[in-house]
Amino acid sequence: MIKPFYLDLTENEILDIQNKFGEILRNGTLILGEYTEAFENEFSKYVGSNYAVSLNTCTSALEILLVLNGTQGKKIAVPTNTNFATVAAIIRAGGIPIFMDMTSDYFVPNLEILKYTLDQHRDLKGVVWVHIGGVIAPDFEEIVEYCKLKDLFLIEDAAHAHGCQMKGTKAGNFANGGAFSFFPTKVMTTMEGGMITTDSEEHAILARSYRNQGKRGGDYGGLHYDLGNSWRISEIAAYIGLVQLSKLDSMLHKRQQAVNALIPTLNELGIDYVDTRHMDKASNYKFIIKYASDEDVNSIKMKFKANGIVLGGGVYEVPCHLQPVFSQIPYQKEDLSTAEGYCPKHICPPITSGTTEQDIVEIAQVISKTLK
């Protein structure tokens, strides 16, 4: 069975992590220690940001960035085809989500969609932009400049975009801060975990306070200055992050090789997919394949599974404006028509850094007889 999730750790790396876990336990510093600091330093260097602050989840990272950018009571634009957590973070930070549509070419909004959203909501305060599946919009540099011009803050939800790069800039380093996820399914993992990237020293200081119960300037005891939470990452998780980060480029290369090997079959069959050749480097967290039939995506998933291939989740089969939990958020149906049309009509084949040449052969065969 070809599965969509693969933990990229060798036996030697697992033994090393086990030994390090023992060292951490014997040392007694389980949080906010040397490995947390080292992971943050190495991640900021990799992304190119001045600072990185580790957290327990990407959701926490998004919420902190939203609070720091003054979201309370303000309208915040967000793509509808994103994970629940992106929209939930806006609400928990006191903001009002305004759903944006996506393009059928890249499954992300573009500058035209953002301009339309601002035209409809003149009091928009900021934007949470999602690099869905690891796809940076081709016009993202223009989007960043437009947000500066219109005094809109721009936060990158880079949960899928580890190592993604366009025109020399990595995801998480384009605008007012990035939020990364290290959930087990992601390109790199710490079991659970998240990271903020920012060039703002003030935001980095406050983010460290918010993750640690508002204890500004102190790790233990002391006074509470900010209404924070217990959003810290553990030392062993941080160490796993260091191991994974050290091989991230290699993992991305393997994913790209797998995608490159699959594309000729799609081209031959005339099956459309999201092309990332405009980027310097793509994470390929999700390789998005569109299909033209009216067949239910769950039916297609069952056919793939019957042939030994487990399809991962899409991006996303049910857009957020149709999720029951967000039913009270107003929207205009015609403004989200592309998402409603394409979200239920795409698949993401199991592409990981563990995908083999034989896996690609089998995936291509099933695509040929299922989507043709």
Give the C-level CATH assignment of the largest domain: Alpha Beta
What's the CATH H-level superfamily name of the largest domain?
Answer: Type I PLP-dependent aspartate aminotransferase-like (Major domain)
From the 3D structure, determine the CATH topology of the largest domain: Aspartate Aminotransferase, domain 2
Total domain count = 2
Largest sheet: 7 strands, mixed
- How many runs of DSSP E, i.e. beta strands? 11
- Which CATH architecture of the largest domain would you pick? 3-Layer(aba) Sandwich
Overall pLDDT score: 97
Distance between the termini: 22 Å
Order of helices and strands: HHEHEHEHEHEEEEEHHHEHHEH
Output the radius of gyration: 21 Å
Would you tell me the structural class of the helices and strands? alpha/beta
Spatially, the strands of the biggest sheet line up as 1-9-8-5-4-2-3
Work out the strand percent: 5-15%
Q: Helix count?
A: 12
Helix content: 25-40%
- Globally, the shape reads globular
Low-confidence parts = none
